[in-house]
Amino acid sequence: MCNGTYVTYGTVVAIDYKSGWWYKSCKHCFHALKESENSIHCVTCDTFPNSHVPRFSINLRVADELDTASFILYDKEASKYLGVSASNMSLFHVNKNEYPQELNTSVDKNFIFKISVKMEDINAFQPCIIVVLKLCADNSIISKFLDKHKIYNKNLVHENSELITILSDSTETPKITNS
User: Fold this and answer.
1) Quick check: is 63 in a domain?
2) CA distance 74 to 137
């Protein structure tokens, strides 16, 4: 797999809470703020804001029948799927290490993901960063996607799910690969 934008189908099997579920972002550019003892700094804007905006950063484990991968679900798509902003959710979960049960609604669910893949050495287990650009849980759309690409999936259950990948910005006929 190369750097690029792909469309893939898979099942969320877990949420990795080790890195938390939200981050402090700049109000202007939405990038993460760097914290020091008595200030916060936006490296992108080169400002020292007095406040921040909580934004989602949820690490999903997505599986097919052969393997799993870590996908990062950021604020825009997470808010759309959950129906609540990270700001509103964090009001009830002040401690960043408290994990709202609402986040578990995606576990054991099948999705079509539009993802961005960047090949960077994160660690030996996952040599790339995979960011979710779009998320689709509509079963009728998923069924059409699976039919179009001749993917067998009995009742969209986890045991028969396949993680298929299609380069989405290609002008050629899409190629299906099992990843």
Assistant:
1) yes
2) 16
Instruction: Supply the CATH number for residue 73's domain.
Output: 2.40.50.140
Q: Judge whether 37 lies within some domain.
A: no
Strand partners, 6: 115, 167
Mean pLDDT per 10-residue section of the chain, whose length is 179 residues:
85 90 90 88 91 92 84 95 89 68 92 90 69 95 87 48 44 39
Strand locations in 2-151 (E): 4-16, 22-25, 34-35, 40-41, 53-63, 68-74, 110-119, 128-136
| HSE value, Cβ hemisphere, 13 Å, CA-based, for 138 | 7
* pLDDT for the residue 121: 59
77 neighbors 86 (Cβ within 8 angstroms):
no
In a domain, 28, yes or no: no
The whole-angstrom separation of Cα 82 and Cα 35 is 28
Containing structural domain, residue 77: 4-20+56-178
Task: Report how many domains make up the chain.
Answer: 1
Q: How far is the C-alpha of 171 from the C-alpha of 169, rounded, in Å?
A: 7
What are the φ and ψ backbone dihedral angles of 121, each rounded to 5 degrees?
-75, 100
Instruction: Name the 3-class secondary structure at 18.
Output: coil
Record the pTM.
0.77
Q: Could you give the 3-state DSSP secondary structure of residue 17?
A: coil
DSSP 128: E
